[in-house]
Amino acid sequence: MRLLLVAYPGAGKGTQATKLAVHYGIAQLSSGELLRAEVARGTRIGRVAADYLEHGDLVPDELIFEMLSAPLLQAARNGGYVLDGFPRTLRQAEVAYSVAQEIKDIELQAVVYLRVGPEELRKRLQARAAREGRTDDDEITIAHRFKVFETQTEPLLGFYASRGILLDVNGEQPVGDVFGVITSAVDSLHI
Ligand code: AMP
Question: Residue 114 to residues 121, 157, 172: CA-CA distances in angstroms?
Answer without folding.
Answer: 11, 11, 8
